[in-house]
Amino acid sequence: MRDQLSCIEQPDGRGLAAALAAAVTFDDVRRFVTFGDESYVRSLIYRDPRLELRLLCWRPGQSSSLHAHGAAACAFKILRGTATETVLGDRDRVWAPGSIVEESAPRLHQVMNAGRDALLTLHAYSPPLPIEAPSPRRGHEVVIVGGGFSGAAAAYHLLREMGPDGRVHLVEMGPWVGRGIAYGVESEVFRLNVPASRMSIDPERPDDFVSFAGAQADPHAFLARAVYGRYVTERLGAAVRSSPAKLRVWRDQAVAVTRDAVVLRGGATLQAQAVVLATGIVPRVKHAMWHPRLVDAWDECALATLPSQGRLLLIGSGLSALDVLAFLGAQGFDGEVTLVSRRGLLPLPHEQTYQGTKLMAAAQVDGAPTTLRPLLRWARQAIASAVAAGTPWQRVVDGLRPNFARFYQRLSPSDRASFVRHVRPYWDVFRHRAPADALSRVDDWTRSGRLRRLAGRVTIGPPTDPSGLDVIIHERGGSERHERFDAVVRCIGPALDAAEATTPVLRSLIDGGLARLFPNGLGIETSPDGRVVDGRGEPSTRIFGLGAIRRASDWETTSVPDIARHAQSVARLIARR
């Protein structure tokens, strides 16, 4: 094998790939490798000042952690078996025997043997990798279930808090890490509904996203969601590079949590001293049906198949509907749109010139009522008093939000249920506000006769005709409209009912007594610091919730500022155990 190194004239990626193109026999492998029992085997087989060759042997299910190679150029060859390569910020790649892969230095990747046979890979580095002290074989194992923004934020903060023995396993079925439903889009038509100045993944560096996006001239702009997805990926990558702890991504689904492990659908069992449930928002599926012209507002590819003219029905009138209108405008749609929602409400506008948040005094918060109707009157009076003094109502609502979990937790179960059923739609239009230009588009299309808004509910007829859908619109007040549309877009937001939102892993927690449903029916119960409450009513010492999973107990837990703050807090709790 050493005789074959003479083909290397320049120690760069092209020379390394040429070196690896030569044949390597299994007898060569046996001379250099002794298989281990616990982790994949790395054997140094050649090293000089310019070049290093390593032979790696992987049993089924074994994987490296996410890593880069510093300043070294790298190439590797698949000698036997099939390798699955995860590249942070890109889709996974599968390499067959004989493949030669060249890696550019800045990329973070991991290699896994997802097959049933042994995997052998030959890696070349130039210059040689630095000699590092071996990592501890046993570590502090943390499993994150879910790889959207919540999971990525948890991983980011855990990597910053944990030491060399930290082992973070992130379980995510989808092709991306850190993007999820909200940020897994490509079109820059889809924008954030929170100013850039409030979107940092790190609460201690509030201007971080603004700096990344180069938005210092307009830090309160509503930037593209795709830009935010790239930001999360970049910051997670930076944490991987700088942390002594290790992060491994598993393209799988968690189906069960036991008292010391997480079980994956693919068969792997991950030991876990701590578990972070970051399953994110779940699309609403109750009463859903399939039809080629019935699409979801979160499905960018499906939206691109909508007709360029004709009649479209949008079910829902919140932020998702405004996104769809923006997408249709960018696509040159030249037809009519009907917007139907239960109450016909649109999101209210953001403050024209963002000036920050007017925080509510602690004494005022402490004196707030603890039952729903008096609390609503109190909130209205607080907003009215501030507006009378010249403060925009948006700033007052933002000042209420940091205290919302406390208000919500003090309500009785019946009051919480009443809030969700009756008050939530009105709170949402104040809370989930829209950029002014998005609302201007609604006004412009309405004036031109291209858009009409109706309050009511929708019944879709049987899917007998693939070219369109027959719909009954039941308007508030009792009248009915029988109409036909060329396509229907569901803009109805995430699932709220636990029956829709419960995933296999949450079902296993409830069935095993490690979690219990909250009385309001929105999901499992968590303590104020995010610990999952077990069947006996005791907060767990090792299972934590993050993001939407905490909604049943706290309600306001799904925006980036909330998730980033909670992720940092949970990471510190876990790292200090």
Topology:
Elements: H1 13-20, H2 26-32, E1 41-47, E2 52-58, E3 73-80, E4 83-87, E5 93-95, E6 100-103, E7 109-112, E8 119-126, E9 140-145, H3 149-161, E10 166-171, H4 180-183, H5 208-213, H6 225-242, E11 246-250, E12 254-257, E13 261-264, E14 269-271, E15 274-277, E16 294-296, H7 300-303, E17 311-315, H8 319-330, E18 336-341, H9 362-366, H10 372-388, H11 393-400, H12 404-410, H13 413-431, H14 436-447, E19 451-460, E20 469-475, E21 480-485, E22 487-490, H15 498-501, H16 504-511, E23 531-533, E24 539-545, H17 551-554, H18 560-575
Parallel strand pairs: 9-10, 9-15, 10-11, 15-24, 16-22, 17-18, 17-22, 18-19
Antiparallel strand pairs: 1-2, 2-8, 3-6, 3-8, 4-5, 4-7, 12-13, 13-14, 19-20, 20-21, 23-24
Helix pairs in contact: 3-6, 3-18, 8-14, 10-11
Unreliable segments (pLDDT under 50, ≥5 consecutive)? 1-12, 32-38
Question: Beta-strand percentage?
Answer: 15-25%
Strand order of the largest sheet: 16-22-17-18-19-20-21
Q: CATH homologous superfamily of the largest domain, by name?
A: FAD/NAD(P)-binding domain
Share of helical residues: 25-40%
Q: In terms of structural class, how would the helical and strand content be classed?
A: alpha/beta
Per DSSP, the total helix count is: 18
CATH class division of the largest domain: Alpha Beta
The biggest beta sheet is recorded as: 7 strands, mixed
How would the global form be characterised? globular
Count of DSSP E strands? 24
* Rg of Cα set: 27 Å
Number of domains: 4
